C-alpha cells in the first residue's frame, strides 16, 4: 500500500511540476490586475476617493489625505512590479500588508468582499513563499551566465 501511495504521489508530482511556473504567473497577474484596476478607479474619480478616505475608510495612524494618496499609489505601483515579476517577494509582501490594511480600514467590506480579500491574500502568499517563477523579470535578472571551464 505504501508503495502505491509513493507511485501515485510521484506521478502527480511529475504532472504538476511543469505547471508551477504557470500557477505563479497566474497568481501574480490576477492579483496585479485586481489591485491595479482598483487604483485606476480611485485615480479616475479622485473626488470620490477623497470622500471615501475622509468619511468611510477608517485608516489607522495616518491622516486620511495621506492615506488616500498612499493607498492609490500602492494600488497603481505595486501591481506593476508584481505583473512584471520584478522584486516579486518584497512587492508582494507590501501588497499583502496593504490588503490587510484595506480589510481593517473598511468595515463594510467584511460582509461582501472579505472572501475576495482572503483569496487574493492566499494568492499573494503563493508568490511570497515561492517567488515569481520562470516567467518573470526576477528570473531573467538572476540568471547568471555560466562560467566556462577555462576560467
Specify the oligomeric state.
single chain
- Rg: 20 Å
Average pLDDT level? 92
Number of strands: 0
Shape: elongated
Q: Give the CA-CA distance, first to last residue.
A: 51 Å
What level of helicity do the residues show?
Answer: over 70%
Low-confidence parts, pLDDT < 50 over ≥5 residues? none
Number of helices: 8
**Biggest sheet details:** none
Q: Beta-strand level of the residues, as a percent range?
A: under 5%
**Would you list the SSEs in sequence order as H and E?**
HHHHHHHH
Look at the helices and sheets and give the structural class.
Answer: mainly alpha
Q: Tags for this entry?
A:
151 residues, 8 helices, mainly alpha
What does this protein structure show overall?
The model has no long low-confidence stretch (mean pLDDT 92). The protein has 151 residues and is an all-alpha fold. The longest helix has 25 residues, at 20-44. It has helices at 2-16, 20-44, 46-56, 64-84, 88-105, 109-112, 114-130, 137-142.
Question: What's the gist of this structure?
Answer:
The chain is an all-alpha fold and 151 residues long.
What secondary-structure arrangement, pairings included, does this model have?
Layout: H1 2-16, H2 20-44, H3 46-56, H4 64-84, H5 88-105, H6 109-112, H7 114-130, H8 137-142
Helix pairs in contact: 2-4, 2-7, 3-4, 4-5, 5-7
Amino acid at each position: 500500500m505504501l508503495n502505491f501511495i509513493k507511485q501515485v504521489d510521484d506521478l502527480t508530482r511529475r504532472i504538476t511540476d511543469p505547471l508551477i511556473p504557470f500557477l505563479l504567473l497566474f497568481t501574480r497577474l490576477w492579483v496585479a490586475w485586481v489591485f491595479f484596476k482598483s487604483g485606476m478607479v480611485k485615480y479616475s474619480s479622485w473626488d470620490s476617493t477623497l470622500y471615501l478616505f475622509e468619511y468611510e475608510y477608517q485608516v489607522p495612524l495616518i491622516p486620511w489625505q495621506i492615506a488616500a494618496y498612499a493607498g492609490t499609489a500602492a494600488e497603481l505601483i505595486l501591481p506593476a512590479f508584481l505583473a512584471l515579476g520584478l522584486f516579486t517577494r518584497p512587492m508582494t509582501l507590501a501588497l499583502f500588508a496593504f490588503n490587510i490594511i484595506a480589510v481593517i480600514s473598511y468595515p463594510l467590506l467584511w460582509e461582501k468582499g472579505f472572501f475576495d480579500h482572503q483569496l487574493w491574500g492566499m494568492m499573494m502568499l503563493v508568490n511570497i513563499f515561492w517567488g515569481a517563477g520562470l516567467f518573470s523579470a526576477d528570473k531573467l535578472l538572476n540568471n547568471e551566465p555560466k562560467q566556462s571551464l577555462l576560467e
